[in-house]
């Protein structure tokens, strides 16, 4: 069991060592890709001289790439090596803070580069739908007074018919002819026809304005779904939006409902009955009685028209809408819910190295667990054993030399040294220098 864990730990360490270059390459590639998309996102935000914008975007994107690469390299080095839980949790917290900072300085710009044009087009489409609803509401409000036409026409026809019946057969007073009652009925019928003509006249104006607004909307729809760069289309869209806002305001002011309400009130308040012109007291009395009836009828008609006009005026007014141009980055943030795949890709390209760091941490933890359960002998490799033997022999040689130096008199040592100096040096190929101080120990 211990030998199996030893082999596993040794293989894991070998794999980690062999993948070190690949890990750096992956981190560098992801950081470079993030920098490129960050550059595209920054270019859409900056204004001014083209050269200054270019260099500013380059500097920012390079800084982002270097920062991301360094951040993940540090974590890949330190996090897998930590053993105690407190230090590891602290570094994980730092990694979380760093990830948030990476999202703030890079990921949203990457999303702007990936889906910025589509987000701006969606902003134009949403705005165009709002203007369509405003135009329809303004048109409906302007035509609201037309719903009063049937009532006004019926009242006008009724007054005209009563006047004609009174003139021909005296249906109201019992005496035919064009008397006071006929004149009053004819007057009321004329007032109703004038009010009807006013409402009918507003219909042509409303139709013209509505058709003009529809033309602006058609142009705006074409700009939303058009081809080419989105920024010139957004500028043209803004011009059409301003023109359409003017049309909607004109429709609001064209509504004839306030005029109808005032005219309806005048029917009752401004009612002036003529003096009865009957030749006899009996006829004059009948005329006064009929005029009182007409007054009551006019008052009821005025009240009905005023109530209908009040309902029209109570309809909600169209609020002024103003088109606000958005940059690609602002549009991506505003409509983030519609571009979740782009946001996911933009964030993943920045935070994917965190997965590699986690893999390294797990691998190092497994290696440590395997090594902790092994005996000391199982942890020593063949190379470690060879180095240990060489060091042992070197130490033993030094001890023997020290012992000989202590046992032999100084004169003999000097004679031996002189003899060794007189002897020719041995062949270089038969000498193997051993330096314990200069030898470096490398772990597998």
UniProtKB/TrEMBL annotation:
Leader sequence residues: none
Residue spans crossing the bilayer: 21-40, 52-75, 87-109, 343-366
Domain of life of the native organism: Bacteria
Coiled coil ranges: 185-212
Keywords, ordered alphabetically: Coiled coil, Membrane, Transmembrane, Transmembrane helix
Region entry Disordered, spans: 412-444
Protein name: DUF4407 domain-containing protein
